Amino acid sequence: MDPEAEAARLRAAAAAGKPGAYRAYAELLTGRGRLDEALPWWARAADAGDADASRTLAICHKDRGEFAEAERWYRTAADRDGGCAFGLARLLQEAGDTAGAERWYEHGAALGSIECKTNGAVLLAARGEWDTALARLAEASAEGDDVAAHSRRAIQNMLRDLDGWRAALARAEAEGDPEEAYEALRELLDPERRAMFERYPRMVAEAEALYAGAAAVGSAKALVDQALFIARDDGRWAEARALVERAHERGYDGAAYVLGVWAEENGELRTAEEWYRTADEADGGHMWACFNLGVLCVRQRRLEEAERWLRATGADGAAGVAGADEEDGPSPFDEGEERIVQALRDIAAIRADPERMPPPEWEERLPGLRARAEEGGPDAWFAYADALDRLYRLPEAAEWYRKAGTPRALLALGRMLYEGGGAKGLRMVPCYEPAAAEGDAGAAYDIGRIHDEAGDRRTAQIWFRRAADLGHGRAAWWLGWTSEERGGDPQHAERWYVRAARSGLVPPAFLAGRSMVRRGACAEAEPLLRVACEGAHEEAPYWLAEALRGLGRAEEAERWLRVAADAYPDLLHRYGEMARLALRDPG
């Protein structure tokens, strides 16, 4: 049957309310990428009691970042449908409502959802209810769930290893041997176990207890590793730092390095430098303390000092970097040495580029700004901090930004420390929040970017939406991309691309125009594609030609196709038959 005739038939059946027609027509529209038109028909199907339609609606709204609407649709059928119960539980879990997630996983499992049984069991294991979790995973595995079988084996192996660590620690405790106590737990810090601690937080508490036992035997190193596990909880940060300081007092040289790293991640640059120097002064020095000191100095344009610290690492490749020939083949250095060599190359590149050095005119303004800051208030303090920031005097700038304390000053502080000072993004979010609360689109976008880089897509999506609603083009671009690439929702994506294009961004102007051409809206696409052509987007001339062909303007289409062929021959060649079609008359 002709596709359009079939679509008309299904629409008429749906409009007449025939059984199953709502879903059938909604599925057809969804398959054609016309989700906006499909959603009302999915809603009619859901209102008629179709639980799968409720779940589909929830998924669509979740992909669009409309989490409240997603939750509403899941709840319409979660009490009677295991799939909706599972989706609701996942949504609540991602939002941090673990108790709510557990309730709905349990309810879904009672309805027969194996996925709910498995995920609910994993949540029980996450808080240490091992026996109950293993029993439920065994049931789900017997019902054919491979995920349950894998999770059960992983937990059993984890518990076996835990028993082994406890036994080894007990032997060391009996002998009163601090080194043996520490060595008994070395495997706990294997990078391959990182996922285990993320999925099963109870294992963090188990590891903390084991290291506390090793520390009680007398191991100062164990105090540091105990602190590393405690530091996963932001509310126990002071406790973790105190343990590492105690390890330093007890003579463990590596503790000073850890304190330096933590201080740097928190944006405490002076403190970080002090701890790195302390680590280096310990017997035998500390290669990575020297490296981090070198990088700190590079960021502050203390280049001679930076070079000294980097060469003090003792890396074999550091000495001859200035004359290194990059065409000599693969680097003979290991990853650590390569980082040192690259840092030395960065110093050479900075020296060669006046734009990357402190601007002399700001050095000349500094005394006057300092005088006004000493007599003035927040505005004068911000102006002085800004000048120090431009001069790469980051520790002093941080002090004056903090003294100013305004949303603008805190935002500048956060950006300085995160983007140029080595601080950890999530630690700097509080610096961005006051400006975002006042409607600063850039601050909202930066918070979204930090969460996106940390792997928290949900929180990132919320902040990008706020930024886009405030007019931030790149945030709108991100939302469009995620809608199209992750959610398969081209209509929603197109709207965000259009909003992004209004801010002057070329790539989303192209993406919006291409989307319009694909759905036949060539008149709407033309101005956007012309913007993309003016911005030298390599694919835009071809798609502008397609738009013009669709509008019946064959001669103009051919001219743009020739532009595409002249400027981007390789790209046009990849279109193959499509490129030749663009030259044909639209009739």
Characterization of the model:
- This protein has 587 residues and is mainly α.
- Helix content is 75%, strand content 0%.
- It is built from 35 helices and no strands.
- Helix 30 packs parallel to helix 32.
- It is globular and about 85 Å long.
- The two termini are 24 Å apart.
- The relative contact order is 0.04.
- This is Sel1 repeat family protein.
- It comes from Streptomyces rugosispiralis.
- InterPro entries: Sel1-like, Sel1_AlgK, TPR-like_helical_dom_sf.
**Global outline:** globular
Largest sheet: none
Please give the alpha-carbon distance between the first and last residues: 24 Å
Structural class computed from helices and strand pairing: mainly alpha
